[in-house]
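user: can you give me the structure for this one chain? tokens are fine.
assistant: on it. calling the predictor now.
[tool input]
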Amino acid sequence: MEIFLKKHVHGPVRGMASLKCSVFFFFWLMTCMGASAQQKGAVGAEVFSLRDMQEIVLTGHPVIKQARLLSKNAQAKVLQSLGNFDPELMASFGRKIFGGTEYYNHWDSQLKVPLWLAGADLNIGYDRNVGAYNNPETKTSNTGLSGIGLNIPLGQGLLIDSRRSTLRQAKIMVGYAEAEQIAQINSVWISSLKDYWNWYFAFEQQRFTSEGVSLAEKRFLALKAQVLIGDKPPIDSVEASITLQDRRVQLQESSVKLNNARLLLSNNLWSASGVPQELPAQAIPENDVDTQRFMDGFRLDSLVREAAQQHPEVLKLKSQQAQLGVEEQYRREMLKPKLNIKGSFLAGRRDFSYVADNYDFRLANYKVGIDLSFPLFLREQRGKLREVRIKQAEVTYGLQQTGREIQTEVFSAFNEYKGYQAQLEMQTRNVGSQMALVRGELQKFDLGESNLFLINSRETKLIEMQVKRAEIISSLRKAMAEIYYRAGKRLEF
């Protein structure tokens, strides 16, 4: 309405109308370029926060579900190793009758209970071997022969044997699996965070570009009306039209980038039942907040020291060290001669409901044996021991190099963060200064000391600077997450 009044007013009145028009332009500039919260509070828009994404990713992402199986798999191997200590019941029966003669009737049964202490085995058995053609050495009375005894390795296997070594190593590998699980979950989470902040930047870029198009459209319509009433030269409307079309092209490009960023972010979204989810079109990223609050209590030195002890890669190498330590102990044990002593107390009874006289359990009734063997050169075991020690050296060197690399990566990520932090401070000041320039250019335009080209130029530069600021925020938040990721800690927002 103010534009059409210019056709009928002159002098101060006409100047006041022009001033109102400039104020109108500036009002639209400030509201469209600076009111982020108003735009994000549009009807139908829903904020998709990092907390929302964390809940979805950590509960439904297939790779994270797969990572959680690592610990279960390690526990399953521990259970397998415990199987070497399971009691074992064995029994056999054989009988032969020919021509009315019972050649033999054999019944052998034994309960073997592996013991942790000294690698011994507890043996409880019952044998009944009768018949006309039985070996006198193994022949028993009709009641059979019971026995209880131990099999103890006095040489090789006394301190550690295969089953104890396997169990210890399996328990150590549980820690390795848990460290690998943390590493995989952190890897998925930081990838999701980067996709989120890429989406944030694409959203902000599309938002500022859309606001620029809105400004250009309103300015074009206003100038077109002024040209029709003869208040402005036609060339101004041409200038406004070119600016409008150029910004529409930029808006189209930013919309494509936003859609692609939304698709990439959707790759991380899965339901708890494993169904892929899509980020809704009305979803918007959370408002930018003071990033400094995420660094409260942050101490770089303590973070580096903690990373040197608790980083998943360090924990995995330490688990390998511990595993190789058990393996070395076992291989050194294998250099000893095999010297096994076994003995049993015997009794001619099947139960304890009666006294078996001289055939009861006593020192006079026993069976004993000794087994001895020793390879003369021990080349196989010495070679295996040497191989284990070489692997230990490799892991030690790897641990030293890994610790140095982790420290360097943490410092590098921190330097990158500090760089973006400084850029953000400068860019924020630059945006404020550019807004002041746009405001001043509009005032000069009202006084007839500027033109539409300069206003569009200032305005375009402001949009570019705001987009750049959003890009710096995105990079800053990714750099913050990178610090914790490189330190091997749970990623902060």
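assistant: here you go. The longest strand covers residues 101-114. The longest helix spans residues 379-446.
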